[in-house]
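Interim report, section 4.2 (structural modelling).
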Amino acid sequence: MTRIVYFLPILVFLGVGAYFAIGLTLEPSRLPSTLIDQPFPEMDLPPIEGFEEGLSRDNLKGQVSLVNIFGSWCVACLVEHPTLMTIAAREDVPLYGINWKDAPGAGAAWLKRHGNPYTRIGDDPDSRMAIDLGVTGAPETFVVDQQGRIRYKHVGPITDDVWQDLIAPIIERLRAS
Amino acid sequence: MKHLVAFCLTVFLSFTAWAVEPNEILDDPALEERAREISKLLRCVVCQNENIDSSNAPLARDLRLVVRERLEEGDSDEEVLAFVVQRYGEFVLLKPKVRSSTFVLWFGPAIVLLIGLTGLAIYYRNRRRAAAAVVPLSADEEKRLKELLGDD
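Predicted structure of the assembly:
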């Protein structure tokens, strides 16, 4: 019986070790969003330079849509850009952009150079909208349902794989419900 | 002397300046003091082990401005913190509230220490008991021992 006591430290070590090993596989920058299933926050953003239309919350109502946070300074945004262009070309789901923390004209110039996948774009130079959305970095993408509620938040670039395996099925499910 | 004062001011003020830029500072010193205290409680979501008061990340700066804006609009300290928690979750509080999900975080180290102390207490008690349990030799054994050792 007392033998067990001698093995106790090893057992405790294994337990703690397993706990930390799992912790190491987690991505600390991926914070759980507090906004899931909440209505999209109040939004009324002005257009970026050279554009007529801004972006408001009313634009999101009526159909499942995507809201993407991007900036011309954001390298990872360039990674997902080809995928966003493909999504836009399909004209299946509206893709709205929030141009986050860009100097006047920088976002527009970036879109001119690489192509514009967005249906509408709002300007957010001082992070007010980004903070309301709990954004921690770009790119981030929100899936918004027909009623204007946030149903999913993706942190990081939307690659073709992410789109096919993650985002597209969520959109399908929301449309079906 | 003037130079010395200027030098000292430069050196010592730079220690308290942190990342807060002059144009962020509120005109009302009491409000600014509250803003600084609140900022120290909020985690920068970009560089996660820094508070927003000392972080140079652009998002931390924007959050500092939001904190000041809320204060100017008359929010209490708790309301400002709640405003940020509502958007970023409890994770942004560098001093999370005590509740079931943060129980291990708050009391884990104390519990581990307690387990260790209990183990130590048990160990020493058993050792003392084992020492006390040594039975003295009987008369026969005493005799035999003497024989073997040849004590005369």
